[in-house]
Fold this sequence. Notes:
Distance between the termini: 82 Å
Number of strands: 4
Order of helices and strands: HHHEHEHEHEHHHHHHHHHHHHHHHHHH
Amino acid sequence: MLFKLLVFICFAQVISYDVPNTHHHAAIDAVIHRLQxxxxxxxxxPCLEKTLTLLENVKNYTLWATWVWNANTIPTGNLYxxxxxxxxxxxxxxxxxxxTHPEFRTKYCLAExxxxxxxxxxxxxxxxxSTEEYLNxxxxxxxxxxxxxxxxxxxxxxxxxxxxxxxxxxxxxxxFGPQAPNITVHSCQVAGQHPQPGIGFYLFIALLxxxxxxxxxxxxxxFYVTSDDxxxxxxxxxxIKSFCIIKNLQDLMKDNKEEIQVLNGMRFLxxxxxxxxxxxxxxxxxGIINSRDYDKTIEGPIGLLLHIAVVVxxxxxxxxLLNIKGLLNxxxxxxxxxxxxxxRYVRLMGPFALIIFYLAxxxxxxxxxxxxxxxxxxxxxxCQKTWRLSLLMLNTDLKYLCHxxxxxxxxxxxxxxxxxxxxxxxxxxxxxxLAAFGTAAVLSLIIPGVLTYWYGLPAVHFLDxxxxxxxxxxxxxxxxxxxxxxxxxxxxxxxxxxxYIMTLYKPSEHRKTVSKTWSIVGTAxxxxxxxxxxxxxxxxxxxxxxxxxxxxxxxxxxxxxxxxVCVVIGLCEYGTVPIVTDILSFxxxxxxxxxxxxxxxxxxxxIQRNKFSLRSPWTSKIIQPIEEQKKNGIQYKNRDIKSKxx
Length: 646
C-alpha cells in the first residue's frame, strides 16, 4: 500500500511538471505549423528560418529566444475596448547582448488588424449571441471593438510582408471569431538603430540658438548701451525693442485700461478648457484599457461635456469683436487695409511657422516608444509635405493639415479677411456695409445647415470617436463642417456685431446703463443657453438621427453660444454682474490671456510627446455613474450615420 502511494505521488509530480511544458510546446508548435502553411517568397527565407529557429529555442528555454518571444503578448481585453496591445517595447529593443551578438538583433513592428469589416449592426449584447456580431456592434462613444493595434517583436531580418504572416500565425492563438483579420504592418523599428537627424534638425537648433542670442543681446543693449538720441524708427531700435526680454515682460504685465477686461478671463479659461479637451483626445488616441468604463461615464453628468469643443467659438467671436473694433476706432484715419492684414498675418505666423518647422524637422527625433513612429505620421510626415499651404493660411483640410489643432489659425485669418472686406464696404457706404454684413450672416447660418442635411453629417461632432481611430486623417466630415471658415463664420460675425455695438456705445461712457437686476437676469439666461448648447452632445448621442434636426442645430448652436457669450460681455461692461465680472476681470488673467495664443500653439506638442512615448495604454479612472447598474441590459439605439458621400 505504501509502495503504491509513493508511486502515485511521483507520478503526480511528473504530471504537474509535464503538463505546463506540454501546453507550452503545443502553443509553439501551433505557431510553427501555421507559419509553414503560409506562402513565403524567396527573399523571405531568412526571416522564416530565423523565426523557426527562434521558436525551437523557445521550446528549449534558450535565453535569447525566450527574451524575444516573451516581449510579445497575445491581445487581451479587446472586447472590453482595449484596442492597443503593445507587448514590451523596451524588452524587444534593448536586449543586454545587443552589441555583442548582432545575429540576435530584433525588430519591433506595429500591426493594424481589422477583426471584422462588416457593416455595423444595432448593438445587442446577447451572451448567447455571436462574438462576430458583438465586434460589429457600436459602442456608446464609437470606440473600436473590431480594431486592434498590435506590437510584434520579430527577428530583424523580417520585412513587413513577413511580419504580416507571423502576426497572422500568432493571431490563431487568440479567442476572436473565425474570420481572418485584415492586417497592415508598418512603423517597424530595428533594435540599436536610430534615425539620423537631417539638415532641417540642425537648422532649427541654429535658429533657436540665434533667437536666444538676439534676445540676450537686445536686452543688454536696451538697458546698458542704447542712447536716447537713437531714432525710434530705425531698424536696430525696432529689433532691440522687439527682442528685449525685460521690455516684453513689462508689456505682458502692464495694465491696459482700454482693454475689455472680461475678455482676459474668457480667453484664458477657454484656453484651459481646450488644453483639457486635447489631453483627453490624445489619451483616447493612445489607447484606453477599459474603454467600456470610459463609455459608461458619458451617460452621467460628464456626458454634458461632449460638446465642449464649442468653446472654440468663444475665440472666434473675440477675434471678430477685437478686429472690427480696432478698424472702427481708426475709421477716420487713412488706413491701408493690406497693411492691416499683413500685420495680422505676421503676428499669427511667427509662432505658427516655428511650430511647423519643429514638427517637420525635429519632433520625430525627440522621443521613442512603441507608437512613436506610427504617431508621428499624424504630424511630422504631413508637415514635411504640406507646410507651404499652412504658411499661406490656405490649409483647413484635416487630411493635409500640419499640426492638427492649428486649423484654427488659417480659419481665423480667412475670417479676418472677410471682416476687413465688410469694413471696406462699410467705410465706402454705410448701407452697403450693413447689407454685406447681413448677407454674410445669413449665409453663415445657411451653409452649415445645408451641408449637414445634404451629406447626413452629425449635428454635433466628435460623438463617434471610432471615426477618429484609426483613420483620423480620413474623417472628412470634420474638414467639411467643422474646420472650414464658411462653417465657422457665424460665431465670428456675432463678434463683429458686438464689436460694432461697443464702438458706437463705448463702455467707458455707458457704465451702469443696465440695472443690476436685469444684468443678473440676463447673465443667468445666457449661462442657461450656454449650458443647453453644451448638453446637445449628450442629447444627440442617445437620439435617433434626423437630418432636419441635425441641420437646424448645426446652423444655430454655435451662433447661440456666441450670442450668449456676447450678452455676458455686454452686461459685464454696461451693467453690474457680481462675481462673474470679478472673476473674469481678475488682474492675473491679463498676462495669462496675452499668452493664450502661445499656450494654444505649444500645448499639444507636450501632450503628444507624453502620450506617444507611452509603453502601455492608460486606464480610465473616471468614477462611473451610480445609475450604471440600473442601466445594464439596455440596448442602445443605433447612432450610425450613413453619409451620402464626401
